[in-house]
């Protein structure tokens, strides 16, 4: 009983397959604080970059609005022309800032977890609509963590704002004594730097939240020993299924092997139990190599295909057994068998020439050729 209980504890690290399945469901480590902080800092930096352009546009707009002649006052179309002028002045700096924020927002949200798209994440889940489970989530560990983060964020930002206002208090009051457009540039400069420093304070929360989210994600994916065993069975398959797969693989390999038999130069047999198809191609190898081999039924099939394609069949029992046991498919024959195989090929080539051109019939090779002791089987 104790063993069963311990086996249910999620003490094992998640397997690659478990992580892949979680990713397919949209379950990846994410830090909302990282994305939020990235957008806030980008907004601050964007203000610094686009600030001069915005200040210049605002100064031009104010100058235009405060210098109105009598004709413009009595022209009803002037209002629409003013709005067009304002739009053209602010369009480029504002749109540039928005585009910059959009890019940073996208990058900030994919830094941790990467890009994921899951249809399963959009599907409705009944447990999400359960009031009981909803209350559990409200008062669970995750809710407590989020509450702690919220209080921490508020405290950090509030303290940062207090120190910044205290530090820049005299500069803020001095704005009322400055003249246009200098006060506009100065106010935007103060606003930008205060915003940058204020947003930088959120990095403290990010530094804590990112490692926590990674740790929490890995903890949620942890598996029991039984789950790992079940996954291994599902991945590797049941014994009968694996046996069927291996059988199909053997049949496919055998069909491929049989398709090469018509390309052989000679079939060396024993004379019923063993059959080996040998090929010698100086363009592909430096020595003869095996195209196909088999025993009993496979050997019979090799001989049958050889007869259909008029391939020479030579009976040499010791040589057939030696080649079969020492050489794999598409592998060159061992050096110790070079002489015996060369005699067989020489006989086959002479026989082929005799059948095509006539002349003296070649002498059959010895049935029991000498085979080195280390290659005998």
TrEMBL record:
Cellular component terms per the entry's GO annotation: plasma membrane
Pfam families assigned to the protein according to its UniProt record, in alphabetical order: Bac_export_2
Alphabetical list of SUPFAM superfamilies matching this protein: EscU C-terminal domain-like
Domain of life: Bacteria
UniProt entry tagged with the keyword Cell inner membrane: no
Major localization class: membrane
Biological processes annotated in GO: bacterial-type flagellum assembly; protein secretion
Keywords for this protein: Bacterial flagellum biogenesis, Bacterial flagellum protein export, Cell membrane, Cell projection, Cilium, Flagellum, Membrane, Protein transport, Transmembrane, Transmembrane helix, Transport
Bias kind Basic and acidic residues: ranges: 7-30
Subcellular location, record wording: Cell membrane
Region annotation (Disordered) ranges: 1-30, 358-377
Residues annotated as transmembrane: 38-59, 106-123, 144-170, 190-215
Family: Belongs to the type III secretion exporter family.
Function text: Required for formation of the rod structure in the basal body of the flagellar apparatus. Together with FliI and FliH, may constitute the export apparatus of flagellin.
UniProt name for this protein: Flagellar biosynthetic protein FlhB
Originating organism: Shewanella woodyi (strain ATCC 51908 / MS32)
Lineage: Bacteria, Pseudomonadati, Pseudomonadota, Gammaproteobacteria, Alteromonadales
